[in-house]
Specification:
The complex is a heterodimer of chains A (116) and B (112).
Chain A lengths: L2 E3 L4 E5 L4 E3 L2 E3 L6 E7 L6 E7 L7 E2 L2 E6 L4 E6 L8 E8 L9 E2 L3 E6 L1
Parallel strand pairs in A: 2-12
Antiparallel strand pairs in A: 1-4, 3-9, 5-6, 5-10, 7-8, 8-9, 10-11, 10-12
Chain B lengths: L4 E3 L2 E4 L5 E6 L6 E8 L3 E9 L2 E4 L8 E7 L2 E6 L8 E8 L6 E2 L3 E5 L1
Parallel strand pairs in B: 2-11
Antiparallel strand pairs in B: 1-3, 3-8, 4-5, 4-9, 5-6, 7-8, 9-10, 9-11
Classes of the chains: A mainly beta (116), B mainly beta (112).
Chain lengths: 116, 112
């Protein structure tokens, strides 16, 4: 079964420190994509970063990087130099089937609180 | 581009009433998705369209829910009759093939 697992319901981090949000996935598809979205308290879903299953290098977008370990089926999000505005719910998602359908399977999310 | 547009942003209705949620995807996006988010069930995919054609409606909870996409720039999600358990935030998202989905601001539905 295709599934995304986020085992951390909530996380705390001090401002300016780095934090890692865990995500593991389960799929038998040889080609798939992995995404992270941020949902602040205002409710909108904001795309952060994408990693393709055949990408050789880990994706990075500014302070966001994706620690992709294919053999372990993990796609952890690393946020460097945390800011107060990073406090939000973070969702990991997978696009299976080589993107043939473009649909996403979401995890249950991790609530991150950045403390001053 | 204005992004994905959803209306209304908030809807409060009484049980048994018909509710229609509206979505305008980003111009040029071939895919349109409807999601429902609740505390209990998280983010659920209800239905998605490709080039205005419904592809997978397996997430639609029951016959009270229906969705249409009459053209490339408009979609509706209708609940008739509505029930209190339908209270949730409903998101519309759109994308081009192989790329990330862009979400609308959501419609917060409360059924009393």
């Amino acid at each position: 079964a295709q599934k995304i697992t986020q085992t951390q319901p909530g996380m705390f981090v001090q401002e300016k420190e780095a934090v890692t949000l865990d995500c593991t996935y389960d799929t038998s598809d040889p080609s798939y994509g992995l995404f992270w979205y941020k949902q602040p308290s205002s409710g909108e879903m904001i795309f952060l970063i994408y990693q393709g299953s055949y990408d050789q290098q880990n994706a990075t977008e500014g302070r966001y990087s994706l620690n992709f370990q294919k053999a372990r089926k993990s796609a952890n999000l690393v946020i460097s130099a945390s800011q107060l505005g990073d406090s939000a719910m973070y969702f990991c998602a997978m696009r299976p089937e080589g993107g043939a359908t473009n649909k996403l399977i979401f995890g249950t999310g991790t609530l991150l609180a950045v403390q001053p | 581009d204005a992004g994905v547009i959803q209306s209304p942003r908030h809807e409060v209705t009484e049980m048994g009433q018909e509710v229609t949620l509206r979505c305008k995807p980003i111009s040029g996006h071939d895919y349109l998705f409807w999601y429902r988010q609740t505390m209990m069930r998280g983010l659920e995919l209800l239905i998605y369209f490709n080039n205005n054609v419904p592809i997978d409606d397996s997430g639609m909870p029951e016959d009270r829910f229906s969705a249409k996409m009459p053209n490339a720039s408009f979609s509706t999600l209708k609940i008739q009759p509505s029930e209190p358990r339908d209270s949730a935030v409903y998101f519309c998202a759109s994308s081009t093939p192989g790329y990330e989905q862009y979400f609308g601001p959501g419609t917060r539905l409360t059924v009393t």
